[in-house]
Amino acid sequence: MFDYFCLILLDVSILKSQLYTISEAVQASGSSGQSNTLASDVAEDLHDENPKLEAGSDSDNDKPAEEDVEGDFTKLTGRQKKLFELRLKMNEARKANQTAMVAEKKRMEPPQESRGISKQKWLEERKRKIGKLLDANGLDMTKAFMLDTQEAAEAKYKKWEKDPAPVGWDVFNQKALYDAYKKRTKNVEVDLEEYNKMKEADPEFYRDASSLQYGKSPKISEDKIDRMVKELKDREEKRNSFSRRRRFHEEKDIDSINDRNEHFNKKIERAFGKYTLEIKNNLERGTALPD
Amino acid sequence: MMGSKDADPSLGYLTRKDTEVKLPRPTRVKNKTPAPIQITAEQILREARERQEAEIRPPKQKITDSTELADYRLRKRKEFEDLIRRVRWNTGVWIKYAKWEESQKDFNRARSVWERALEVDYRNHTLWLKYAEVEMKNKFINHARNVWDRAVTLLPRVDQLWYKYIHMEEMLGNVAGARQIFERWMHWMPDQQGWLSYIKFELRYNEVERARQIYERFVQCHPKVSTWIKYAKFEMKMGEVDRARNVYERAVEKLADDEEAEQLFVAFAEFEERCKETERARCIYKFALDHIPKGRAEDLYRKFVAFEKQYGDREGIEDAIVGKRRFQYEDEVRKNPMNYDIWFDYIRLEESVGNKERAREVYERAIANVPPAEEKRYWQRYIYLWINYALYEELDAGDMERTRDVYQ
């Protein structure tokens, strides 16, 4: 790539200086015969002093040459056209160089793990980065918090104050059930008049556990029953929206032959994913890493 | 040698040669370079899945008359019964069967399925919950009551069953019944949330006296600091200040040596503050500080200092703060008796307070810690201690006698 570039530069500078000297020669002497020899002389010189001319000729020739080109935009003469084309080539070469540089850099870096980075590795990376930053500031690992901004620190405090959300079956822990019951009690409409009426009517209103009124119950009106049924139906609807549907990742690799297989693989991944991540990455890469 | 072409009677018209199983001979792989076009396993799987045909489903049939319906039901029932026979312990299958029967509005059959399921596993509270819910949704109240009763008798430690049973009775307006169930539950001494839900229930109907009695039982059942504090806060909310104070005092009597007594004292003191009884509050704080070992009194100290800043005069504040620093120093000197810096700070503190006795005491203790090694560094500081002591005696105490003593 670089060689190509050098050659292009050489061409350009040669031609530019040729142009300049030729135009000078034309102005000065007015004989085309001499210009040829001059051109060949110039070419020889240029082979020796390439880098200097690059710098010199570019800065010198840019202005007059540019003006020429811009002026005769529509009717480019042979040489100016060539110059234009050369410029295009130069730009292309520059772009090609850039992309080559980026590609090389990418090649030098280790490639991204195809199945994601294990938590351990990520933590180690993080520690290393923070270690570097700390060293730059002359700090110790124990004072890593000094690197946080104020917003970051406030976010951290907030997170510490929060309780961690329950995971898995723990969602039905005692506290959660009690809270759910408390919420449901808001649906109870307390009708104090009716309550008092019942109190009058029933001598054993404040029953004990072992009261003999055990099996009896007052006549219950239809609308109360309907209300109860309605509440149950509401609860059932709420229950349906308990677990949300997860996004379907199309870009993920398929490792199943079936829907049932896919479901099974999801469950297995949940259970063993973090332990088998290294192994899977090694298999994808084809070789195991020496760590 | 038997001619291979001869007909073997057992094989019919085929000869032996034909019936021999010819396995392909394993050839040797000559070219071990990778093929130019590679394929990954994942690609194979992807293609396989894409080329799959859709699932074959039986066509949807519309049921037009009762014989067809009967057929359909028979078929489904047979399916379900087969499933149950295969996987008896799978609650999900039982529940599906029972729910299907319910959807067919055949409640007797549904009930029998539920009962059979319960026979398999009565300890599964979800079965009970779903069964009762089915009865409730279809408005069979007494059936539901029966189910709940059985559930609650068999599994008394599952709070959810109790909650839902009581909720049903309350929704139906049968408050007395609900109360009876609560009473039954309380006999089992459930955890705090059960008691609290009972109290909330009573308060919903403005039965304050009953709520109070329940609280009494509650603190008997769960003699912990948090329950006493809840009781006292309840009394405060009802506006009964004397009762609240009474509660606190009883709590202190009972739980002075509890590990969480500190919280109790803090709550008590805050209560007194709210009642504008600063003297009592101060007494409580002092009592608490004396009572509780220093290690756990962190929070208490902070509150005390804050309180004094609000209400106390200068001396009180200083006293409190000094007391706190004193404890800190005690801690530190206990850990490193050789650390003379700490001794110096401590001495300075005592001097600033102006309490001569204590200052002297501290000096004596400091001097008692003779440096172990013959190193000049240690001795230097030690000597400074002596000199300070002497100066102090001379300047502050003005007691010449003692000064002379010290110089010895």
TrEMBL record, chain A:
Domain of life where this protein originates: Eukaryota
Protein name: Uncharacterized protein
TrEMBL record, chain B:
Localization: Nucleus
Region of interest: Disordered: 1-35
Domain Pre-mRNA-splicing factor Syf1-like N-terminal HAT-repeats: 79-224
One GO-annotated biological process of the protein: spliceosomal complex assembly
Keyword Repeat: yes
A Pfam short name: TPR_16
Entries under InterPro entries matching the protein: HAT (IPR003107), HAT_Syf1-like_N (IPR055433), HAT_Syf1_CNRKL1_C (IPR055430), Syf1-like (IPR045075), TPR-like_helical_dom_sf (IPR011990)
Chief place of localization: nucleus
GO cellular component: post-mRNA release spliceosomal complex; Prp19 complex; U2-type catalytic step 2 spliceosome
Residues annotated as domain Pre-mRNA-splicing factor Syf1/CRNKL1-like C-terminal HAT-repeats: 243-322
Alphabetically ordered keywords of this record: mRNA processing, mRNA splicing, Nucleus, Repeat, Spliceosome
Free-text function comment from the UniProt entry: Involved in pre-mRNA splicing and cell cycle progression. Required for the spliceosome assembly and initiation of the DNA replication.
Family matches, as PANTHER family: CROOKED NECK-LIKE PROTEIN 1, PRE-MRNA SPLICING FACTOR
Family: Belongs to the crooked-neck family.
Name used for this protein in its record: Suppressor of forked domain-containing protein
Organism: Citrus sinensis
